[in-house]
Every structure is written in structure tokens, then in C-alpha cells.
Write a structure and sequence with these properties.
Elements: E1 2-5, E2 11-16, E3 19-22, E4 32-36, E5 39-46, H1 53-62, E6 67-72, E7 75-83, H2 88-107
Antiparallel strand pairs: 1-2, 2-3, 3-4, 4-5, 5-7, 6-7
Length: about 110
Amino acid sequence: MEMILNEDDLVVGAVFENGTIQDYVDEEKTYGLIRVEDTTANWFLYNDLDSAKEIKELYKKVVKEEHFIKNDFGEEIVLFNKKGNVSFERLVARIDSYLDDEIVSSIF
């Protein structure tokens, strides 16, 4: 996975063998975009205690529509607006991998 950095050398996305991931694609910087093969979906991290007001409002809206949530001990990976045939599970596994790599690269 090759990380994409912004002008301040902060990780803002990644390119991998069969797709890409971006942290933010909206003006409010509340959700990102993942593309794997022919499938795209929006995603964001949610924590009931720590998430900003805008993310909490987005969460309330998303859970009323088609979505997928993976709960990692209170931190949720939320996917929505999926288009394509790749499963939610495969998409969230790729996001997990990206987040793990992002954490490691920020340490070093």
C-alpha cells in the first residue's frame, strides 16, 4: 500500500493493487471514499463519545439507509453509498489495513 501525503506530509489516502482510499471527499471533511475493483463506497470513523457534531449528524442519517458498520471496541467503521459487487466485509477489511498502515507510518 502506497500512502498519499498532502502538502504538510500528512497521510490523506492510499493507492493499493486494485483500488484507492481517500480520507475526505466532502467539503466538511466528514467522510472518505474507497474504491476496490468496480466498487465504490463512502466511509468514516465514528465514536459516540468523541465524534464531532457533523459526524454524529451524518451517522444518524446513514443508519436510516443501506449501510454497514464494523465496531472495533467503540470505534466504528461506517460504510454507506456502496455501488458495485465487492462485499462490505472486503471493503472494511481494506479500510482496516489502511488504518493500521497509517498508524504505523505516523509512528515512524
